[in-house]
Write a structure and sequence with these properties.
alpha/beta, Rossmann fold, 7 strands, 26% helix, disordered C terminus
Amino acid sequence: MRIIAGAWKGRRLRGPTAPGVRPTSDRLRETLFNIVDVDLPDFRVLDGFAGTGALGLEALSRGASHVTFVERDRRAVDVIAANVRTCGAIDRCIIERGDFIDVARRLAGGPGFDLVLLDPPYDFADPGRLVDAAVDVLRPGGRIVLEHARRRGAPQPARAAIVRELRSGDSQLTFYVPSGPTDDGAH
């Protein structure tokens, strides 16, 4: 696994050690970041279900100013920390160990994020709940991207609307924006 483009192009990252961690393919990461421009002033990313940290580190390599990684598994958190050190990005990252919805609740009302990346296990029971929780941490104009199994179709969360879908092999990226006012009235 490697960084595809940007300042750290070609840098090798540690792979998963935890069972069930399925890193986003290089091709799908490249497609995602060809669509989403993260090279903007003070662009903040939340990488939920971070696994190895490859998505968030790709965003940093391409110009994002900050990434918060969220991961439950201690072994995966250790891999993320090692990959952050490899890229020399310690001062631009926070690693939160815990459940995504709990962490999102805690982060709501903070500085917010321009992009929330969600890559839960493909058999996750209700990914729409994750998208709804992510709405509360978005900055105005922010987007949520959910990677999921193509065969399951895109969830239709209560608080977000689909604006784009991309399919690649067995995977799909679904892009969401908030569909109504958030609790803080920012949207």
